[in-house]
Fold this sequence. Notes:
- The protein is mainly beta.
- It contains no helices and eleven strands.
Amino acid sequence: QVQLLESGPGLVKPSQTLSLTCTISGASITATYYAWGWIRQPPGKGLEWMGLINYDGNTYYSPSLKSRTSISWDTSKNHFSLQLSSVTPEDTAVYYCARSDPARVPEYDYWGQGTQVTVSS
């Protein structure tokens, strides 16, 4: 059973960098063809895809967030991380990590429970 668990601060001040980690169990982060993504949902809005890291370490980002987003991994710990810089209150959202299987529709088949991040001074 694949499980993902997000962790990180629930409160971030404006202009600071938001940092979250997603720890994977039941699967290897380097398993061929899978990718690992970050998706967020602001209050009252729909899901927004932020970016992902592939099984080979390549990263892809949403064009609207690319300048502020960085996704990295630690294969020895089987986890991947999100950094979002220069946050504003508009970055307040529930942040999810999820696994992408490109052979499936929808492609994201396993999700973390989500973690609330509030940007406020």
